[in-house]
Amino acid sequence: MAKTLEKTRKQIAKKKGGAIDALHANSRNAKRLHKAQVRDERLEKIAESRRKQDKPLLQRVSHFREIVRENENKPLDLEVVRSKINEYVHQHDEELEEVKKSRRPGRPASAREDLLKMKIAALEKEQQDGFYIPDLTSEKNAQLLERWEGEWAFLSNLDWVKIMGSGIVKPAKFPPQAN
């Protein structure tokens, strides 16, 4: 990804005749190398946080892609999509019940239980306000989902919709905007 350190090292080695090991600790070139290394680390940290932020949406798309594959890459009816959204929203319910049962009476909720409750509540709220997914009722999107290989950039080719809890379908844009 970030190649600043490699480029800087190559430039300094070219200038010094290949001997980059003999740099003084406080020389300009040593400072350039240090600055390039810090920049590369910072960019990698930013990229990692971005990947972590994008992961839930990628998981959601892959989940609904499997549903379309099960339907032989044909578009789904709106009622089927709504039922699959409901299944997706409540996918953690069994695990939450299991965690609740394993807790001794009178003990506070575990961190895992709290996390599952928050996930379920957030998904239920999104389901009511408008669940953000690729348009699974479109033939074009079904074919594009089949070709998707997991890259974030490819998702901009898909048509996106928000399906409200009342059944209303609104077109949406990619990437999703924070409301």
Overall number of domains: 1
Please identify, by name, the CATH architecture. Answer: Up-down Bundle
Unreliable segments of 5+ consecutive residues: none
Examine the coordinates and then state which fold CATH places here, giving the name of the CATH topology.
de novo design (two linked rop proteins)
Structural category is mainly alpha
The level-1 CATH class: Mainly Alpha
List keywords for this structure.
mainly alpha; de novo design (two linked rop proteins); 3-stranded antiparallel sheet; 6 helices; about 5% strand
Provide a short characterization of the protein structure.
It holds the Pfam family Tma16. With 179 residues, the protein is mainly alpha-helical.
Description of the molecule:
By secondary structure, this protein is mainly α. The protein has one domain (4-18, 25-172): de novo design (two linked rop proteins) (Up-down Bundle), CATH 1.20.1440. The chain is 59% helix and 7% strand. The chain contains six helices and three strands. It has helices at residues 4-16, 28-70, 78-89, 93-102, 111-129, 139-147, and strands at 131-134, 160-163, 169-172. The chain has a three-stranded antiparallel sheet with strand order 1-2-3. The model has no long low-confidence stretch (mean pLDDT 87).
Secondary structure topology:
Blueprint (H helix, E strand, L loop, with lengths): L3 H13 L11 H43 L7 H12 L3 H10 L8 H19 L1 E4 L4 H9 L12 E4 L5 E4 L7
Helix pairs in contact: 1-2, 4-5
